[in-house]
Write a structure and sequence with these properties.
MetI-like fold, mainly alpha, single chain
């Protein structure tokens, strides 16, 4: 009789879960909130504080409108005393909490129904506008924050000059700069991009600097023993060494940029997904409001998963042995830096001298 495999405990410190169990828990993480939402929506005795009027009778209530239970009972009691026909209703949740099937219909409607006003734009156009604001705000944050963070994490002089004011400003909420950004950049998209930049730039500099400082010192010491200069240490040791963790930091900071989107789009002229949500809220179309919020979450989740998979492709050594597809893709990606490095070596005057750390012109 074959021996049974040992039972893997659920809670183990410092170890992962079997793939099948991890997939089941991931699915359960989405099923449980949906089940709770469905229970609140469809089971009357859990939470249905309102009454939706089905037949108004002679009470003066409006059919299809929701009333509090006390107001509904008072209207029926008054009608009974005066001999009028009472109203009929059913338990209902508030209008701001639509049922899952209503939100599912709303997901279809946001992409198929035309705008209610002639000057309004379609929902997918609002999403595209928000994506452009996110892209440019995070692009400029990375373009300025990553190099500054690398320098601050590498050189103590830069850290002492840069980090104290950045550490001071990062505690200021980005929305407080809204009026100033509108005064400087006007009412178009520029102040919105600036708010996303402010919300991510200062955090990015400190995070990148901290990631740079955590680089293994033995790598720097080995390169210095071989005579590498400061520029070569930065280009060929520090940047490649922190690149995998830097990629993860930027992926997390991109989520922060999304959190500032709604606030940013309220500055100046409302635009993007925020304008759509605000408009549907005024019309009490909360099924469409929830649908728009879900679309934002889906875009963020899909983007994060794509970037996470990109990390496995770009940095296969971070997760052990890579599969054949990963190795093939990485080999093609690696051709670019290899070709650039080969061209640089050919253009150099000579090899590095391990003793002096200078270029030996005679050797070339």
């Amino acid at each position: 009789m074959a021996a049974s495999s040992p039972r893997v405990p659920w809670f183990v410190v410092g170890r992962g879960l079997p793939p099948r169990r991890a997939s089941a828990l991931m699915a359960l993480a989405f099923v449980l909130p949906l089940a709770l939402w469905g229970a609140v929506s469809y089971v009357p005795w859990i939470w249905h504080p309102m009454v939706e009027v089905v037949e108004a009778g002679a009470t003066g209530l409006q059919e299809g409108k929701q009333y509090g239970k006390s107001d509904f009972q008072a209207a029926n009691a008054s009608a009974a005393l005066e001999g009028r026909e009472p109203a009929a209703g059913r338990p209902a949740n508030p209008v701001f909490l639509p049922a899952p099937h209503e939100v599912a219909r709303g997901l279809y409607r946001v992409f198929t129904e035309p705008p209610q006003l002639r000057d309004d734009i379609w929902f997918h156009e609002s999403v595209g506008h928000s994506l452009r604001v996110i892209f440019w705000g995070f692009f400029w944050s990375c373009a300025l924050g990553v190099p500054l963070g690398l320098l601050a994490g590498t050189f103590a002089v830069v850290a002492r000059l840069v980090e104290p004011p950045i550490d001071f400003i990062r505690y200021m909420p980005a929305p407080v700069f809204g009026a100033l950004m509108v005064a400087v950049f006007g009412l178009a998209d520029a102040p919105k991009v600036a708010i996303i930049f402010i919300g991510t730039f200062f955090q990015m500099v400190l995070i990148v600097a901290n990631t740079t400082r955590r680089l293994d010192r033995s790598l720097l010491e080995a390169a210095q023993t071989l005579g590498a200069s400061r520029r070569q240490l930065v280009r060929h040791v520090i940047v490649p060494g922190v690149l995998p963790q830097l990629y993860t930091d930027l992926r997390i900071l991109l989520g922060w940029a999304w959190t500032y989107l709604i606030v940013a789009e309220l500055i100046g002229a409302k635009s993007g997904v925020t304008a759509y949500i605000a408009q549907q809220g005024r019309y009490f179309n909360f099924d469409l409001v929830y649908a728009a919020i879900i679309v934002i979450g889906v875009i963020g989740l899909v983007t994060d998963q794509i970037l996470q998979h990109g990390a496995r492709v770009l940095f296969p050594w971070q997760r052990g042995e890579a599969g054949p597809v990963t190795r093939t893709v990485w080999s093609w990606v690696a051709l670019v830096p290899r070709g650039v490095m080969g061209l640089v070596r050919r253009l150099r005057p000579g090899p590095l001298s391990p003793v002096s750390g200078r270029v030996d012109v005679a050797a070339s």
